[in-house]
Amino acid sequence: MQKFLVRMSKNLVIVESPAKAKTIQKYLGKDFEVKSSFGHIRDLPKKGMGIDLTTFSPDYEVSADKKKLVTELKAAVKKADMVWLASDEDREGEAIAWHLADELKLKPENRKRIVFHEITKNAILKAIDNPRDIDQNLVNAQQARRVLDRIVGFEMSPVLWKKVKPGLSAGRVQSVAVRLIVEREKEIREFKPKASFKLDGIFLNKTEQEIAAKLKKDFEKEEEAEKFLEQAKTTEFKVLNVETKPGTRSASAPFTTSTLQQEASSRLGYNVTNTMRLAQRLYEEGYITYMRTDSINLSQEAIEGAKKQITSEYGAEYSSPRNYTTKSASAQEAHEAIRPTDFGVKSIGDAQLNKLYQLIYRRTLASQMANAKIEKTVIEIGNASLPHHFEAQGEVIIFDGFLKAYGIVKTEDEDEESNDKLLPKVSVGEILNYKTITATEKFTRPSARYTEAGLVRKLEELGIGRPSTYAPTIQTIQNREYVDKREVEPHTREVIKMSLAKDKIKKVVLEEKFGGDKNKFLPTDIGEVVNDFLTDNFREILDYGFTARVEESFDEIASGDQKWKEMMTNFYSKFHPRIEDVEENADRATGDRLLGVDPKTGKNVHARIGRFGAMIQIGETDDEEKPIFASLMTGQNIATITFEEALELFKLPFDLSEVDGQSVSVGVGRFGPYVKWGETYISIPKGEDPLSVDQKRAEEIINEKKIADAPIATYKGEPVTKGTGRFGPFIKYKAIFVNVPKKYDFENLSQSDINELIDAKLEKEANRYIQQWEKEKISIENGRWGPFIKFGKAMFKIPKKADDTKYEADELKELSLDEVKKWITDQDPKAFAEKKKPAAKKAATTKKATTTAKKPAAKKPAAKK
């Protein structure tokens, strides 16, 4: 009876995402209204710290973009008898529920907290039948993380502005992630490769079947390898031993957040952010269980569902139900691993979602399947007269077990060599003939740079961060430009290869490329300098053990074993004095490297960080004649650039002969090397050295640009061109750029396509401007959150009227330019101040080198810091 009353009363369910709301509404029916909070409705203020540092009480506020939504939710609450807070079951979700309860002033008797880790009808109805109240311990764990990270960022960032470069920021987990990447890069730079000779043999049995084998010993010296080949030349090779061992391979546990991110990277090539975005959709649409988890546990219901599916699809012999125990002390066993909600759903319609769903589906099935049975064979080949013997290894799968569903993928750390080859039948004592024996010089390799998946694995291994933090951490360190994934061009070296065939030894010297990389993390110059400064001055904050211990403290708060404000007091009592000490006493950090002395001027040449980033400086800041600067090119950094490479940069920019009556020069700027033709900047193709661009090559680049910019059509008598920019393909009409969506065939745009695209853009632009003064570069425009003023690239608010009401669009159309200018100067008194003209250059060499630093007209003042 009670359940019936609950169902029939006025019920408001609040979730955090509209997609989730849509799915849940489908299951609950008309007696329930489901609304979305669109994530957090409250947070710490964007300006100021927003924390009372005596009590560590946060001053939460409803963000500007959520005020309208909160008003709507309050109205919905008034109509409801019961409010069900159904945000996610993790700490972040608990905090969202708590903020909603507090801001919407929900009384305990009129609110219920429900959680579920899958969005299915059974799970939702079961959650409604088993409500609870808000778990304040989980809320406090989230508050502790939010407050501690705000304090660290808020107090450390100004130190970086003062000691390194304005505009930088620091964060607790992000800084540790950058440290991992910087330390790996330094390890790679300092790595000294060692050469050795590895021997491979191909042997033939009496039926001419090939057996590939490796010598069980590597030789350090070329002479030793050559001596062994000489011995092998006249040796009769025999099968010395054949050993066959049975073995098994076991399936991996079902996915946690971390292992899903790693596997989606290695199997599907997805980055961490993309994986989480797709997993979120799969969860919200009801296909998988909650995707932020560090548990590998499966419910009994899931184990039974998998067993039924495996038995019907593969047969009873493939089924082997089992549960996995999570090793992490912080994992909650009540939670589940990421799994399908219904094993009967084998695929879904959306192609991109289906790829990730298939991965999760097959991994979960495999975890409940029998081990694969293999037979491993090892054949030893050699002769008593030889000091070392060859070994051939092979594997045969006797029963495929879980491999039937999931297969095997090698990790980036595993050897490329595979043992799963089939070996021919041989017997002990059988004579084999060698076909070839090859000794190849191989060099040891340093540890690999981190991929996104590798970085997640390392952070998890160190106990740093939690499932919800990996993706935002990795995104943040890239957004802050502390790390990037630029391509590393390989180096070339000579290797010796000796081959024995038909009783003759042939020696060749080959070239091999090494050290190249793609899609791996590298620190930027500023990332290295910031990391070195922080590790020198805030060693404890960047200590891996300390960061892991902080995570453990959050876990203790979540379980009620520690009070969050006591933890904050203890942390801050040590942290703040360190901030004050560093601000007062630490030296400025520029990453300065003295490279040598310029032969022309006799002045020092430095590689360092300046106000606008990495640069080369000739001369000292306190010299009577000011220093001159040059920007580094893509792929160069201050930690590794050589003296010779640095001096080459001062040859840029250089002038060439005019083309079509317009001046031509070659230089390097913010976006890399370019040819400047008149006022047009044309990028030099990737990997091409700008110093190698002569008149002929410059003209080729200009002609390619002319062809690319040639009109493809006309619109109202005006030419239309096309190109590809930072945001994808576009067409250009007059000064208007129009993005071309994927539904159009960019290579074969028809006139009707072009008309359609430009018409839509012009209509949008017409609605964009309320008023526009083109000459002054001032406009009043419609924005996402209402009208605003734009002056150049800067944006300004429209103040309220004297009666504290907002201006209507019709009123804004009547405003004069002078009134708008006054609003701009009220917000920025220097907005219309005259720009100072740059001082005249003293000498030709200075002029040339200073313009090199393009774009820094302002690179000189940087040196004065």
TrEMBL record:
EC number: 5.6.2.1
Region of interest: Interaction with DNA: 169-174
Catalytic activity reported: ATP-independent breakage of single-stranded DNA, followed by passage and rejoining
Coiled-coil annotated residue ranges, if any: 205-232
SUPFAM superfamilies reported for this sequence: Prokaryotic type I DNA topoisomerase
Pfam families: Topoisom_bac, Toprim, Toprim_C_rpt
Enzyme class: isomerase
Biased composition (Low complexity): 841-855
Keyword line: Coiled coil, DNA-binding, Isomerase, Magnesium, Metal-binding, Topoisomerase
Annotated site location: Interaction with DNA: H40, R145, R146, D149, W161, R292, R480
Region described as Disordered: 831-865
GO MF term list: DNA binding; DNA topoisomerase type I (single strand cut, ATP-independent) activity; metal ion binding
Catalytic site: Y290 (o-(5'-phospho-dna)-tyrosine intermediate)
GO process terms (BP): DNA topological change
Topo IA-type catalytic domain residues: 135-579
Domain called Toprim: residue spans: 10-119
UniProt-listed PROSITE patterns: TOPO_IA_1, TOPO_IA_2, TOPRIM
Basic residues composition bias: residue spans: 856-865
Family statement: Belongs to the type IA topoisomerase family.
Binding partners and assembly: Monomer.
PANTHER family: DNA TOPOISOMERASE (PTHR42785:SF1), DNA TOPOISOMERASE, TYPE IA, CORE (PTHR42785)
Protein name: DNA topoisomerase 1
Taxonomic classification: Bacteria, Pseudomonadati, Bacteroidota, Flavobacteriia, Flavobacteriales
